[in-house]
Amino acid sequence: MEKDGKFVKGMVCGAALTLACMALTVNFYRLRLNWNLKELTNQTAEQETELDLNTRAVGNKIAQLQELINESFLGDIDTQQVEDAIYSGMLEGLDDPYSEYYSAEELQRISESSSGEYSGIGVTLTQDPDTGEIYVVMCFPDTPAVEAGLQPGDVIWGVNGEEIGDMSLADLVARIKSEPGEKIILNLHRDGETLEAAVERRDIQVPTVSSRMLEEGIGYIRILEFDSVTVEQFEKALKELKDQGMEKLLVDVRDNPGGVLQVVCDILDELLPEGLLVYTEDKDGQRTEHFSDEEHQLDMPMAVLINENSASASEIFAGAIHDFDAGTLVGTTTFGKGVVQRVYDFTDGTGVKLTIAKYYTPDGTDIHEKGIEPDVQVELSEEAKQKVALEDAEDLQLQEALRILKEE
Predict the structure, then answer these.
(1) Whether the predicted model's global pTM rises above the 0.85 cut
(2) Most buried one in 71, 131, 134, 180, CB count within 10 A?
(3) C-beta of residue 359 within 8 angstroms of C-beta of residue 370
(4) What are phi and psi of 124, to 5 degrees?
(5) Beta bridge mates, 62
């Protein structure tokens, strides 16, 4: 019996020792597997953040394609167009909706549009990063777009009857501006209907800031875009409202697609006390900070109107006002574009726009693909959204902001 007991005890000890050895072996292989996976992940991460083309092989293939096209292609060939398409394709391969290649002509138009003066039809367009659809955000008053009957929300699917397919926003804008003839036909989708609008092109001078006095000493400033002319226009509007006895301020950045980072910081500097306005971080984690000084600030109640088309610089504006606790945000959640682009010029007149950093609000909030939520949520009806000009009484967001300001 004692012998059997020793035997059983030995079996148990042996089994325990075997299990312990197995556990050590499993843990060893698990650690080794995790180490290998970590190494593989690190290698993959390096591959994902560094472009490493075999330029000789790419060049050889382009030469082969050129020879094949010259030997067999039936049709006219525009060499410059093919060259531009090669560079455009390289940027498209980054799978970033905000990085683009610009031909010399496109780059010139981009420079014009950021100045507030350009040749076109007088609309603000945007492209849905998920569906690729390009639609009208805003029609500026007294422009060809309004005269032709375009409305916010119209989806552009073609130009002169030709489908635009997966064309980028920059390419569509360039085509609208460069299509031969004084008029172009924009093919539209609106509320399930297919429409077309004949739009005349002409020189457009868009005031990026408009202002007026509302009831009970409330000044109203609308910023359409943050372009190079906007700071001067904003300062002028602010001074005029102060001269008229403004006691409270309502700033409207609804449907504002953004603009120049330094411009929005200069405007915030007119409104906020000394402090951090926004900061950016690049791929290496290098941080760049933008501050307001103590020279200017607006010591009065403030509210800001935002919506789903308030993007980029508009979100920097709203984010800073919120984090400084300087005003109330009213409307709907913003677009959620929390990345910064920079345009690099080449000596041949072409250029590229690259996403180079993410930006964060003063409190360190990352709003990319999230947006900024309003302090007070107010929706507009679909009918109201499609109107080019909305009466104050119909504008529920405006009315709510006025109510809040009157109570302060």
Answers:
(1) no
(2) 134
(3) no
(4) -105, 125
(5) none
